[in-house]
Design brief:
By secondary structure, this protein is mostly helical. It has one domain (about 5-185): nmb1532 protein domain like (Four Helix Bundle (Hemerythrin (Met), subunit A)), CATH 1.20.120.520. It contains 6 helices and no strands.
Length: about 200
């Protein structure tokens, strides 16, 4: 039996993986075309990553799931500490990516490579982090935790309704998700692979 919490975590991982890969795909296409990306769409995508996976998804793992495993499996504490450290590191890393995007948008083409490198580092870091959780932590939780643990976890995780895992967005988030869906290609959205945009003129 796979519990609701595990399914929710896996669904949220899949949504974030698709989002990160969509960003990298868009950047690669615009680089080939020597065109500007849609900065508004990129800001919206990074804002989603910051607000949902970084702030909500990680918080549920670090504050609810990981403490239960620490209490029952002392040998897993080192790995759980590492994952908690990566959660904190992820919050710092997304700020670096957002700042690099702003520099690219405001200061011009000379800063494209810096943003792309920051984005690639972040995606690589996050994909490896999620793979480790899926390989080690979720199977451990399924083996070790009891019915009362799962009741508590399932109740908490079900409150986190990420629209990119199939839930209807709350009214305050609807405009953000509509913008992302319309600007981004599959598997996240309905937009073209990369619309042609003007080449960026050199800034003085």
């Amino acid at each position: 039996m796979t519990h609701a919490t595990t399914r929710i975590i896996l669904d949220e991982h899949a949504a974030l993986s698709a989002m990160l890969r969509s960003i990298l795909m868009l950047l690669a296409e615009h680089r080939r075309q020597q065109s500007l990306p849609d900065f508004t769409a990129l800001r919206a995508m990074l804002f989603y990553v910051d607000q949902f996976p970084e702030q909500l998804h990680h918080r549920h793992e670090s504050e609810l799931l990981f403490p239960k495993l620490r209490a029952r499996v002392p040998l897993a504490r080192e790995l759980l500490d590492r994952l908690d450290h990566e959660h904190a590191r992820g919050e710092r890393n997304i700020r670096e990516v957002e700042h690099a995007l702003l520099m690219f948008e405001m200061l011009g083409e000379a800063h494209r490579a810096r943003f792309e490198a920051a984005m690639e580092r972040y995606a690589e870091f996050y994909l490896a982090h999620m793979a480790l959780e899926e390989k080690e932590i979720l199977p451990l939780a399924e083996r070790i935790l009891g019915a009362d643990d799962w009741d508590e976890l399932d109740t908490a995780f079900r409150r986190h309704r990420d629209p990119f895992t199939g839930h209807e967005p709350a009214d305050e988030w609807r405009a953000l998700f509509t913008r992302i869906v319309n600007a981004v290609p599959a598997p996240i959205g309905l937009g073209p692979a990369a619309a042609r945009r003007p080449r960026m003129a050199a800034r003085a």
